[in-house]
Amino acid sequence: MRAIIVDDERLARNELKRLLENFPSIEVVGEASNTDEASQLIEELQPDVAFLDIQMPDGTGFDMLKMIPQKTFEVIFITAHEEFAIKAIKFSALDYILKPIDPEE
């Protein structure tokens, strides 16, 4: 499974990459620190899944998803804000994981 990680915090991206190393079926093929970079990566790399932060300096993960005409990948939201869970469900999120990430999740 090809994955990208989208988070404006470098340390958060690194921690998630480290946790994903425990899942050999997941290959992290790219990283982005904002929604513009993420949109380009998604178009270029065609990932199977995006681990997506919600609040970033240039917009939200929700805003970015609205701009993608035909979503061909799954989304797992990774955020410190539990109040967006219902909205994530409306975007057909595969999962919603709160930071700091519990490896058991």
Give a brief description.
This protein has 105 residues and is an alpha/beta fold. 33% of the residues lie in helices and 28% in strands. The chain contains four helices and seven strands.
Provide structural commentary.
The chain is α/β, with parallel strands linked by helices and 105 residues long. The chain has helices at 10-20, 35-45, 61-67, 85-90, and strands at 2-6, 27-32, 49-52, 55-56, 59-60, 74-79, 95-98. It has a 5-stranded parallel β-sheet with strand order 2-1-3-6-7, sandwiched between helices. The protein has a two-stranded antiparallel ribbon with strand order 4-5. Helix 2 (35-45) packs across helix 3 (61-67). The model has no long low-confidence stretch (mean pLDDT 94).
Any descriptors?
about 30% strand, about 100 residues, 7 strands, five-stranded parallel β-sheet, two-stranded antiparallel ribbon, alpha/beta
Q: Round the mean pLDDT to the nearest integer and report it.
A: 94
Unreliable parts: none
- Rounded to an integer in angstroms, the radius of gyration calculated over CA atoms is 12 Å
Q: Helix proportion of residues, in percent? A: 25-40%
* H-E order: EHEHEEEHEHE
Number of helices: 4
Question: In percent, how much strand structure appears in the residues?
Answer: 25-35%
Identify the quaternary structure here. single chain
- Helix/strand/pairing class, anyone? alpha/beta
Kindly report the spatial arrangement of strands forming the biggest sheet. Answer: 2-1-3-6-7
